[in-house]
Adenosine 3'-phospho 5'-phosphosulfate transporter 2 (Herpetotheres cachinnans), 386 residues
Amino acid sequence: EEQKEDNNSTECSELGIMDLKFTSSRKYISISVPSKSQTMSPHIKSVDDVVVLGMNLSKFNKPTQFFICVSGVFMFYLIYGYLQELIFSVEGFKPFGWYLTLVQFGFYSIFGLIELQLIQDKRRRIPGKTYMIIAFLTVGTMGLSNTSLGYLNYPTQVIFKCCKLIPVMIGGVFIQGKRYNIADVSAALCMSLGLIWFTLADSTVAPNFNLTGVVLISLALCADAVIGNVQEKAMKLHNGSNSEMVLYSYSIGFVYILFGLTCTSGLSPAVTFCSKHPVQTYGYAFLFSLTGYFGISFVLALIKIFGALLAVTVTTGRKAMTIVLSFLFFAKPFTLQYVWSGLLVVLGIFLNVYSKNMDKIKLPSLHGLWKKSVEERKTRTLSQTV
């Protein structure tokens, strides 16, 4: 037994010497846990999957994600724009734009709650104070825009809303500290000027300007310019989902509008009118809200994946298609001015896509084209002499 103890002690001493030699040459790796302020850094990007209407977009590559989002935005928002103009064509409905927004926000809240129950992660990640600001901006954007249709015709409203690209870029500079290149600025100018030119013909045929409507759509434009940047910053900062953003922003906005209509005594006349025309009001409003909800889900996915500027560029291009459908369904006159302005909008879209892929798309310079043409001429003359 004494020999065993001696052997164990010698083995332990040898192991201790070996461990000492091992630890002396061991390399240590320090792991530091970031503080709460560091984890909330705006430079941290989202790592969660981007799910839109039950479809996980993170499984696809960037071009496929862009194609799916753009297709969803165009398909649902074209129907949305048609139904919006159709609802306000109902005789006597124009004074009730805020009530339509209330019904729309109510449907959005229900749709968002249903979608949130279908996903696994039901946590609210974005703070309530941020949602109160986003809800206020959402109410300003959609409520003022819907109400302005009671004072302006549809093309006049689109003229103002087409100028949203430039305020979004300004908001991106001041809110998120972004810097845009010449291609982004040129894209915003081309699309804004092209869409304004696109709608000038219709506005001159049936001008229906009203100072109240101009003020309303201008305020909606300012809110719309800010909300995209605020949503992008909140979703990247707190890693929030699209369903969460829709549910809380529109449910809080519903409370805002309900309180405002109750205080201004505008709720009772609207309910009385809509009860007399339930199909043209609540029926259309349901389809209007459903297509708008699907559309906003794809817009939020665009904002989260590609940023606010590209999302607004896509939605601005969608407005051009909305105007084309408006001409088809409401028999507006056609001139070549629409063709040239449409080409200007296409140029703006190309410039925006080019600015996002400058490293992949290399346009030839004028000097390069001239040098290439000179070399081709020399080759032709050499072949002719031979």
About this structure: The chain has one domain: 60-358. Residues 278-306 form the longest helix (29 residues).
